[in-house]
Automatic annotation (TrEMBL):
<feature type="domain" description="GFO/IDH/MocA-like oxidoreductase">
    <location>
        <begin position="130"/>
        <end position="244"/>
    </location>
</feature>
<protein>
    <recommendedName>
        <fullName>Inositol 2-dehydrogenase</fullName>
        <ecNumber>1.1.1.18</ecNumber>
    </recommendedName>
</protein>
<dbReference type="InterPro" id="IPR000683">
    <property type="entry name" value="Gfo/Idh/MocA-like_OxRdtase_N"/>
</dbReference>
<feature type="domain" description="Gfo/Idh/MocA-like oxidoreductase N-terminal">
    <location>
        <begin position="3"/>
        <end position="122"/>
    </location>
</feature>
<dbReference type="InterPro" id="IPR055170">
    <property type="entry name" value="GFO_IDH_MocA-like_dom"/>
</dbReference>
<comment type="subunit">
    <text>Homotetramer.</text>
</comment>
<dbReference type="Pfam" id="PF22725">
    <property type="entry name" value="GFO_IDH_MocA_C3"/>
</dbReference>
<dbReference type="InterPro" id="IPR036291">
    <property type="entry name" value="NAD(P)-bd_dom_sf"/>
</dbReference>
<dbReference type="InterPro" id="IPR023794">
    <property type="entry name" value="MI/DCI_dehydrogenase"/>
</dbReference>
<dbReference type="InterPro" id="IPR050424">
    <property type="entry name" value="Gfo-Idh-MocA_inositol_DH"/>
</dbReference>
<keyword id="KW-0520">NAD</keyword>
<comment type="function">
    <text>Involved in the oxidation of myo-inositol (MI) to 2-keto-myo-inositol (2KMI or 2-inosose).</text>
</comment>
<comment type="similarity">
    <text>Belongs to the Gfo/Idh/MocA family.</text>
</comment>
<keyword id="KW-0560">Oxidoreductase</keyword>
<dbReference type="Pfam" id="PF01408">
    <property type="entry name" value="GFO_IDH_MocA"/>
</dbReference>
């Protein structure tokens, strides 16, 4: 039997997830959609789906068994709380929410419900290359990890819509989450450095260099470049005690012409992580059909929110520390927090 899903937000990623859920994956039916822009929702809706007037109407509909939130970040809290109150599994695109207080409210509601319902859209955890990289680190055969270099480059971002805060509160959350997951560690402090500004981004603060201090003492450096023209380029390399493990360059057709021999670079996140998004939803569908969630949790969304907040404070220089609350047992065992 198919899981009946409702989608909130039918913009760029909402439309991509509707395509995935209707054309790529099986065992799921998109039965409802909603968007502030009703015309956009109607245009994106699969033929059989109902267009709901509001997120609350969609969530409370008996037709909808599980919800996918693809609206913008500030709307997520209310929509998540409504899903939890209705006891419906919910996949929420990142960021979970946009403030620490909101993350705590969502966590409190889910803990009171007593079962995980929320999965956050940190799709890198479902990427086969990242999973192989984590398996090498977890095996211990290179010794303990010491440094992680993470590179996050976008060809461009929508002019006017992408503000100077967004590299830190919208883009960095992916690198923060993957660092926490790869290293099985928590971020305890953040520094930010702003180098020479690229002339391509106008007033945008770009690129940005971020240093994440992990509880174990591992340092993670993150380059965020959101206007680098040549493509979407995600890299990661972990230096351990006796070796280095890195993400491979994505296999792509080799092009030979008068400019030499080269490999194509993905245009954007949809191309680079297409299989990761598919896998993320495959695993979510199994969990949601069982009335729960898997993978990145409300706790992970909370931790990433604190990193984003600390990074925004750290732009003016200096070290900003992060203090997590005690991890509720719903989200697994506590992460070791003491530096060695
Ligand atoms: P988008 O193109 O602006 O789409 C968001 C849609 O949600 C818009 O149609 C917007 O309408 C609608 N919306 C906003 N608030 C709403 C509300 N309260 N109720 C119903 N609909 C609402 O943005 P996007 O690029 O798809 O991003 C959506 C979310 O996905 C963001 O949280 C973003 O960070 C995340 N995202 C994740 C990834 C990833 O790699 N995992 C990649 C891209 C985006 P209006 O335009 O009229 O406001």
């Amino acid at each position: 039997m198919s899981l009946k899903v409702g989608i909130i937000g039918t913009g760029m990623i909402g439309q991509d997830h509707i395509r995935r859920l209707t054309k790529v994956l099986s065992g799921v039916e998109v039965v409802g959609v909603t968007d502030i822009d009703q015309a956009r929702a109607a245009a994106a809706a699969p033929e059989v789906a109902e267009v709901f007037a509001t997120p609350t109407a969609l969530i409370s509909s008996e037709k909808v068994q599980a919800v996918v939130i693809c609206s913008w970040g500030p709307a997520h809290e209310e929509q998540l709380l409504t899903c939890i109150a209705a006891g419906k599994p919910v996949f929420c695109e990142k960021p979970l929410v946009t403030s620490e207080a909101a993350a705590l409210r969502v966590m409190e509601a889910e803990v009171a419900f007593g079962r995980r319902l929320v999965q956050v859209g940190f799709m890198r955890r479902f990427d086969a290359d990242y999973r192989r990289l984590k398996a090498v680190i977890d095996s211990g055969r290179l010794g303990a990890p010491l440094l992680f270099h993470s590179v996050h480059r976008n060809a461009s971002v929508p002019e006017g819509l992408y503000t100077s805060e967004m590299p830190l509160n919208d883009t960095l959350v992916h690198d923060a989450d993957i660092a926490r997951w790869l290293l099985s560690d928590e971020v305890t402090g953040v520094e930010v450095r702003v180098p020479r500004r690229s002339s391509r981004g106008g007033e945008l603060r770009d690129p940005i260099f971020v240093l994440l201090h992990m509880a174990s003492g591992v340092l993670v450096d993150v380059e965020i470049s959101v206007n680098i023209a040549y493509g979407y380029d995600i890299r990661g390399e972990v230096s351990c005690e006796t070796g280095v493990a890195a993400l491979p360059n994505r296999p792509a057709t080799l092009i030979s012409d008068s400019n030499g021999i080269r490999q194509a670079i993905p245009e954007d996140w949809r191309e680079r992580f297409i299989e990761a998004y598919d896998q993320e939803f495959r695993e979510w569908l199994v969990a949601a059909a069982a009335g729960t969630a898997t993978g990145p949790s409300t706790w992970d969304g909370y931790a990433a929110t604190l990193v984003a907040d600390a990074a925004l404070r750290a732009v003016s220089g200096g070290f900003e520390s992060i203090n997590l609350i005690a991890k509720p047992s719903l989200y697994g065992p506590p992460t070791a927090m003491a530096a060695e």
